[in-house]
Design brief:
Layout (H helix, E strand, L loop, with lengths): L2 H22 L17 H26 L5 H9 L5 H25 L19 H22 L9 H20 L5 H11 L1 H5 L1 H20 L6
Helix pairs in contact: 1-2, 1-4, 1-7, 2-6, 3-4, 3-5, 3-9, 4-7, 5-6, 5-9, 7-9
């Protein structure tokens, strides 16, 4: 197996695991429904946030040495805009991540096949918020996420605890935004569950693809232009 194949396979597996554990915390974990289907109380919100954050932290140490552990097309776009990855490699990552997310959602679909009213942890703009509000929230949250990722992995400043900082950032992002959009900041993580959930999750999917990419690109440009890098 070539190094490139190993990198793509790591991104596929990592993204599948992120969907299984993260979205599984909202479905298999007993909450049911799409993340945006009805109000989410503080007690329910925290386990979901921690599940996503801790999974990314664990994966950073599990596959980070192989692929960098992007497990997120928006991260790959931000890293590419920052000039830290080649375009061809970025495309391969995004394909692998998307397929991994679909595989993860398929796993949840199989496990939950006899359970009514689940939703596979799909993202939706929640009641009381507009599509434009959801877009801005996802864009800003992803920009913050990429600032943490790019800043903690900058050559000369990267530390062994970068994975922990990234996981903590994802956790607080979920705590802050999950009641608005269910929190995506990851197009692949939204695509997989939406394909199996349909309905509003599929109708809102464009938000969870476009907004994270825009936010990530802004963060990437800030590092590429040395605004946030010495």
């Amino acid at each position: 197996m070539t190094n490139a194949t190993k990198m793509y396979f790591a991104e596929f597996i990592g993204t599948a695991i992120l969907v299984i554990i993260g979205c599984g915390s909202a479905t298999i974990g007993g909450l049911g429904g799409a993340l945006g289907a009805g109000p989410i109380g503080a007690v329910a919100l925290l386990p979901i946030a921690v599940a996503f954050g801790m999974t990314v932290t664990a994966l950073a140490y599990g596959i980070g040495a192989i692929s960098g552990c992007h497990v997120n097309p928006a991260v790959t776009v931000g890293v590419w805009v920052a000039g830290r990855i080649e375009g061809a490699t970025a495309v391969g990552y995004i394909v692998a991540q998307t397929l991994g997310a679909i595989a993860g959602a398929a796993f949840l679909s199989y496990v939950l096949s006899g359970v009514a009213d689940h939703g596979y942890g799909a993202n939706e703009v929640q009641a009381g918020f507009t599509a434009s509000q959801g877009f801005v929230v996802e864009m800003v949250a992803t920009m913050f996420f990429l600032i943490v990722i790019l800043g903690s992995t900058t050559a000369g400043t990267a530390t062994p605890v970068a994975g922990l900082a990234i996981g903590m950032a994802l956790t607080v992002i979920h705590i802050t935004t999950i009641k608005v959009t269910g929190t995506s900041v990851n197009p692949a993580r939204s695509i997989g569950p939406a394909l199996f959930t349909g309905g509003k999750a599929l109708a809102d999917l464009w938000i969870f693809i476009e907004a994270p990419v825009v936010g990530a690109a802004i963060a990437g440009y800030l590092f590429k232009s040395k605004v946030l890098e010495i």
